[in-house]
Amino acid sequence: MVVLSASAAQAGRLVFSRSLQRQISSLTKLALVQPGHRRAPVLTSAGALGEACPDTAAAVLRRQLQPGTANSFRPRRPGGAAAQMLAARLPAELAAELAAGRGWALFSCGFEDGSEDLIALKLDGGPHDAHCGDILQAIWPVLREDSLRELAGETQAAVTSALLWTISKKTDSAVLVLDGEGRLLHCNESGRDMLEGGDLLSDQGGRLSCARPGETAGFYAAVAECARSRRGSACGPRELILFLEDRQSGMRLPVSLTRYRCAGADQPLVVAILPRQPDRTRIEMLAQKMGLSPAEARVAALIQLGLSNREAAHIAGLKEQTFNTYAKRVLAKLQSAGRAEMAQRLTWQASLGRAS
C-alpha cells in the first residue's frame, strides 16, 4: 500500500512503510493510500518505489492517528474521480495506470471525524483478488494505525503508558471511569482522594452517592443519558455538564461527563472529570520554585486560599503585623499588582498537576 503526500506526491516521491508491506503482502505487492488529510505524505508497500519518511511528513502523519471509528467502506470506480485525484499525486507511470483503471482496485474508508482514506491495490491475478475488498475492510483500521505509527515515530505502548501515568498520578482533576449505569470501575489518585473526602461524591463498593442525597438520582440519570448519546449525532450531546453541591463549602461545582466507546467493547463507558482545588503542598512547592523562601511560600499559599490576613495569620501562627510584612514581600518578589493576581497565578500553575 502507498500513502501519498501533497508535497511528496507532486514531486512523484512516495514514502515506504515496512508495516504496510508486511501486512498487505497477501493481497498485493503494491498498494497506494491517500490518508484523509490531503497534505499527508504518500506511503508505498513497495520498497523500490519509496523513500524514508522525512520529519515534516512524520509530523503530518502524527495528526492523522486518531480519526475515530471507521464508519464506511466502499469500492470506488477505477478511472473515476477518486482515482484521478490519487493519480495526480503519483509518479507519471503509476499515475497513467491508475487513471486508466487497468488492473487496479480502489476503495475509500470514512472515519468518525469526517476524514476519508483512498486505498488503491494493484491486482496481480492472485487468489484473493475477488475478495480483496472484504479482506481490506476487515484489516484496514489496524493496518492504517500500525503504518502511521511506524512512520510517525511513535511507540504505542510508550505513548499510552505516558498518558495513563500522567492522568493517574499527576493530574489534579479527579477522573472517574463509570459504566453506563454509573458504577465506578476505576479512578485516578485525585479521584480517590475526592471520594475518600466525601464532600462531593463518595464510593460505597462501586456505588457512588452524592454528598447531598437529593442529587444522587440526577447524577445517575445524567450518566445514563451520556452513555446513550452518540458522538456527533443529533439525538444526544457528546458531553454533559452537571453541578453538584460541595458539602463543606456549599459551592456548586461542575462535573463533566463524556461518553467513551472502546473498540470491541459491547457497552460504552462514561468518563467523569471534576476539577479540584490545588492542595497547599503543591502551592507552597511552586511558590518556592518561583523564588520565595519556605516561610514566604506558606504565606502565599494561605493568601491563595482567599483568607483574610487575620485568618491566615492565625493559621500560620504569626502576628497579623508579621503576616502583613511577609505578604508585602511575597507580592514584591512575584511582581504581582495585588493579592488577586498572585492567587490567580498560583492557582493556574498548581492546576497543572499534583504535588510530587
TrEMBL record:
GO biological process assignments: regulation of DNA-templated transcription
GO MF terms, alphabetically ordered: DNA binding
Span of domain HTH luxR-type: 289-346
One Pfam family, short name: GerE
InterPro entries, per the entry: Sig_transdc_resp-reg_C-effctor, Tscrpt_reg_LuxR_C, WH-like_DNA-bd_sf
Keywords assigned: Plasmid
Keyword Plastid recorded: no
Record-given protein name: LuxR C-terminal-related transcriptional regulator
Lineage of source species: Bacteria, Pseudomonadati, Pseudomonadota, Alphaproteobacteria, Rhodobacterales
